[in-house]
Amino acid sequence: MVAEHTVKAFDEDMTRLRGLIAEMGGLAELSITEAMDALVGGNEDLAARVIARDRRIDMLESEVDRLSVRVLALRAPMADDLREVIAALKIAGVIERIGDYAKNIAKRVGRIEGHKRFEPLTLLPMMNELAGDMVHDVLTAYAARDPVAAAEIVQRDAKVDAFYDSVFRNFVSYMVENPATIGSVAQLLFVARNIERIGDQATNIAELVHYAATGIYLPEREEVPPPG
After folding, report:
1. Looking at per-residue confidence, does 33 or 72 come out higher?
2. Backbone CA torsion sign across 94, 96, 97, 101
3. Which residues of 112-127 are buried (b: 16+ CB within 10 A; e: fewer)?
4. Fold of 2-214
5. Which of 35, 56, 193, 217 is the most exposed place for a label (fewest CB within 10 A)?
């Protein structure tokens, strides 16, 4: 009876842990989308909502931390269960960083002059969509504990990196040709870098999902130096 109770309590804790990760991920996804919508539309009210939402993501991360420590201390999970708890603890930290990157993008809203007619800005939504799709798909892989899907997501990071490289070079050329836009384009370079980092963090989650499901680490990725 005691063993059965312990198993039930552990299952309830793990369900709660997965639910917290899902909630964090959903909020981060929303922030990625809304931050870019706010930037493109110059919508400072929407940007303010993205910035405010980051506090909720931070609170959920703290809750994941507390629950994970409790599970480790009281349930003493082994093997697959232990890997899942550790993965959840780390994934929460990664999602919190993704929320920070979305918040950073939202903070650029209002700093782009003539944004509705600003050609460089048109390059960023597609890059943002690529990174946002990675986040969505890796959270789906986490929920399904699907290592195959996780490994595929790791491969997609190269597309985001290549897009960033292209955007960087386009922006530098634009600044050279249009010196009066340097301030605004510099803000967009910062945005592009944050989007690239969102892709990196989605890849980090994918590696954790793969390890939690299989106990095997994916091959280490080569670091790609930034352009310039």
Report:
1. 33
2. positive
3. beebeebebbebbbeb
4. Methane Monooxygenase Hydroxylase; Chain G, domain 1 (1.20.58)
5. 217
